[in-house]
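Q: Predict the bound structure with zinc ion.
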Amino acid sequence: MKTLKIAIQKSGRLNEKSVEILKNCGLSFENYKSSLISTVTNFPLEILFLRDDDIPEYVQDGIADLGIVGENVIVETKAEVDFLQKLGFGKCTLKIAVQATSNIQNLEELNGKAIATSYPVILEKFLQEKGIQSDIRTISGSVEIGPGLGLSDAIFDIVSTGGTLKSNGLKPFADVMQSEAVLIGNKSIADNPEVAELLQRIRSVLSAKS
Ligand code: PRT
Ligand code: ZN
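A: Predicted complex:
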């Protein structure tokens, strides 16, 4: 029997809930903080702890068979994987935001404007669909400070409570994508009986919760 590998986030917003859902499926494993890999003792499964950005490609390339990651990261990395199950946590909306004092009213006004983001692929796709040409400035973090410093006219980022936007003098302008954590699988594992068993356990954990 092949030992499956599932990739989950090593640390960050999805780590705790990812570990929790696997434990609730009856899987026994040590949640090592220092190790990158943990072996499940009562199911043919190994858990790989990775940066979330790497998970879709690992699953696409078959280094991991399964993964738990935000939908936004899958779209951003353009990975070709199967969506197996939404998991109901890590919910957020990717939004374009502008300065609270801005009088930008409609999307067309973003033509020619600079938008700072760490998610250029998702933003580009959205702007293309709307026929808008903005100057997308890709930066790896702290995009919220851009408009205040005059680095960009708008930002495109993940929002959950909206507190970060507010405390940086920004307001939401347009919703682009909803996201939550999902279970993904490599394209070639669809018929694997252990995957089916794990998926069934995950679904019963989810339905017991709702
Ligand atoms: O280290 P690693 O690369 O693995 O983690 P990371 O730092 O890239 O990601 P992490 O842990 O911050 O987020 C993992 C995933 O959680 C994201 O890809 C989303 O799918 C999901 N998620 C849900 C969020 C948020 N909510 C969220 N609020 N990811 C980030 N944020 C950030 C956002 O970027 C902004 O800075 O929180 C801030 C806004 O939050 P509010 O509540 O102030 O609106
Ligand atoms: Zn990341």
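A: The radius of gyration is 19 Å.
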